[in-house]
Amino acid sequence: MASEIPNDAFWLFGYGSLIWKPPPHFDERVPGYIEGYVRRFWQSSEDHRGTPEAPGRVVTLIDRTHWDTLTDHHSSPTERVWGAAYHIPSSKVAEVREYLDIREINGYSIQYTPFHAAGPVANSTGSGPIQCLVYIGLPSNPQFLGPQDPDALAAHILKSKGPSGENKEYLYMLETALLNLSEESSDEHVSDLVRRCRSLESERGSQSFDNRAPSNQGSPGEVREELHKIGSTEEQEEVEKTT
Ligand code: BEZ
Q1: pLDDT-derived band of residue 187, with 50, 70 and 90 as boundaries?
Q2: 108 in ligand 1 pocket by Cβ < 6 Å?
Q3: Which of 22, 95, 192, 225 has its CA 20 to 30 A from that of 173?
Q4: Which residue, 175, 164, 227, is CA-closest to 197?
Q5: How confident is the model at residue 205, as a pLDDT?
């Protein structure tokens, strides 16, 4: 539970929408990766990219040792899950904790994992990995779906939408955000789904979502301003339903 987090500054790792929709407060954003997990569109979304009647699909992380026991139609993933880590200063911990508590309702649980920064870090005491809080939709949560057929998954993402916008927008924004983190941060599972969705869209002659690339340069304020500009839906999607 987020309420168990001490009221100290902490690092939060984002591997999904947090990459392009930062938490409400942070004073440093660092691209980098974690290990020992696999990112998959295996979490059902009833309140953001879908509805209870027609849930969409969003990403979760699967422990690599558990993933090894499953039959996944997608190819073997890389050892690294790329994303962005945010440093939450102690003065903003209460506010960000409230924001994160709201996100947790979706079926995600808190875990801690070492994060490897891809660049210099100001708010770090040592040179090694940084302990990060990460939200994971565990296989035991009701929204966890398990392995998905890639074609069916792409078709499902294309037809889904929820209060936070179209499901395909989430997918396309995720791919763009990942490609902007570093030279090595692409994710074949995500890019494969993008290709399948684009191909289905062109077959159907529908208009593709324009996902303009965000930059990973600049101060947190500049990054947030740019990240805000690229979103076609409101910022802080996980908070929408409570406001
Ligand atoms: C993420 O972007 O890492 C994330 C966002 C909401 C819930 C879980 C994970």
Answers
A1: very high
A2: yes
A3: 95
A4: 175
A5: 85
Q: Which ligand 1 atom is at minimum distance from the Cα of 14?
A: 3
Percent helix, strand, coil in the chain (nearest 5)? 35, 25, 40
Q: What is the mean pLDDT of residues 18-31?
A: 96
165 lines ligand 1 (CB under 6 A): no
The mean pLDDT of 122-136, rounded to a whole number, is 89
Quickly state the pLDDT bin for 2 (edges 50, 70, 90).
Answer: very low
The model's pTM is: 0.85
Of 28, 46, 104, 234, the active-site residue reads 104
Q: Which of 88, 103, 111, 237 to mutate to test the pocket of ligand 1 (most atoms within 8 A of CB)?
A: 103
- Cα dist. 24→47, 100, 228, 237 in Å? 20, 10, 12, 11
Ligand 1 midpoint to CA 18 (Å):
6
User: Which residue in this structure is represented by tokens 């009833």?
Assistant: 46
Structural domains of the chain in order of their starting residue, each with its CATH number? 10-205 (3.10.490.10)
Structure tokens at 156: 């499902």
Q: Is 109 or 1 the better-scoring residue by pLDDT?
A: 109
